[in-house]
From TrEMBL:
Record lineage: Bacteria, Bacillati, Actinomycetota, Actinomycetes, Micrococcales
Entry GO MF terms: ABC-type transporter activity; ATP binding; ATP hydrolysis activity
Organism: Kytococcus sedentarius (strain ATCC 14392 / DSM 20547 / JCM 11482 / CCUG 33030 / NBRC 15357 / NCTC 11040 / CCM 314 / 541) (Micrococcus sedentarius)
Pfam families named among the record's database cross-references: ABC_tran
CDD domains: ABC_KpsT_Wzt
Record-level GO cellular component terms: membrane
InterPro entries: AAA+_ATPase, ABC_transporter-like_ATP-bd, ABC_transporter-like_CS, ABC_transpr_TagH-like, Bact_Polysacc_Export_ATP-bd, P-loop_NTPase
SMART domains associated with the record: AAA (SM00382)
Keywords: ATP-binding, Nucleotide-binding, Transport
UniProt similarity note: Belongs to the ABC transporter superfamily.
Protein name per UniProt: ABC-type polysaccharide/polyol phosphate transport system, ATPase component
Ranges where the ABC transporter domain occurs: 36-262
Length: 264
């Protein structure tokens, strides 16, 4: 696609995102120590605001434009804001300030809102696919192929609450890519499942890109980002540290394995 024909699908305009962490200070500190999360919270810009609460400034003045056919990998250390930004693009959390515009429907994380843990995988496929615009007849026609893609087998007849996190992630991915979305948001979904599922998922992402969908992906695997993305955004302390061609950004990131330090 020529540069003058590029069609924007996502516009993030000077977005900031804050959220609160609740709990007593002693309990919170003990939990963070056990889970090794103090560094991540510090990088996310948290501060105590009293009443057993912390305010986390997870995303700071982020602006970007994504275009049709792009596959964009978000990289950065834990607490850098990449997953929070993707959840905002998927419509799960609102910006505290700034604006996010998405053409059509942003899906994968967004389909979570309609999936019901007490219902079977089959019933969730029916509900989820209809929420994405498919008719009942279309869902019936595609049901077997969606189940096969998920790799759940007979477990698809069990309640979703009985699934492991990996099984649930595979089901969400299968539902969300049953139709080509305008914007597909992938937050470590490809880290789940066996090699066969990962290969199927990677092929599905390639198909979405070929049909001019836009893909956003978070992964701690640089090899995965290299394989699936043509652009990378390096997040650090809630800000965009670098945005450009995937190899250029990853090479810079890998030369600074601890990431840049916050100034001041």
């Amino acid at each position: 696609m020529a540069a003058d024909e590029r069609v924007p699908t996502v516009v993030v305009d000077h977005v900031d995102i804050h959220y609160r962490i609740f709990g007593t200070g002693e309990h919170r500190a003990a939990q963070q120590d056990r889970e090794g999360r103090r560094g991540a919270l510090a990088r996310a810009g948290h501060r105590a605001i009293g009443g057993g609460q912390d305010l986390v400034h997870a995303v700071r003045d982020v602006s970007l434009v994504a275009h049709r056919g792009e596959s964009i990998g978000l990289i950065g250390r834990n607490g850098s804001g990449k997953s929070t930004l993707l959840r905002a693009i998927a419509g799960l959390i609102p910006p505290s300030s700034g604006r996010i515009w998405v053409q059509g429907q942003s899906t994968l994380l967004g389909v979570n809102a309609v999936l019901m843990p007490t219902l079977s995988g089959v019933r969730n496929i029916q509900i989820g696919c209809q929420a994405l615009g498919m008719t009942k007849h279309e869902v019936t026609q595609r049901l077997d192929s969606i189940v096969e893609f998920s790799g759940l087998g007979d477990a698809v007849n069990l309640p979703m609450k009985s699934y492991s996190s990996g099984m649930a992630a595979r089901l969400r991915f299968a539902i969300s890519t049953a139709v080509v979305p305008d914007v597909l948001v992938v937050d470590e979904a490809l880290a789940t499942g066996d090699a066969d599922f990962k290969e199927r998922a990677q092929k599905r992402i390639a198909e979405i890109r070929s049909e001019a969908g836009t893909v956003f992906m978070v992964s701690h695997s640089n090899a995965m980002i290299r394989k699936q993305c043509d652009r990378a955004i390096w997040m650090d302390t809630g800000r965009v540290h670098m945005d450009g061609p995937v190899e250029e950004v990853l090479s810079a990131y890998e030369k600074a394995p601890r990431g840049p330090r916050k100034k001041g």
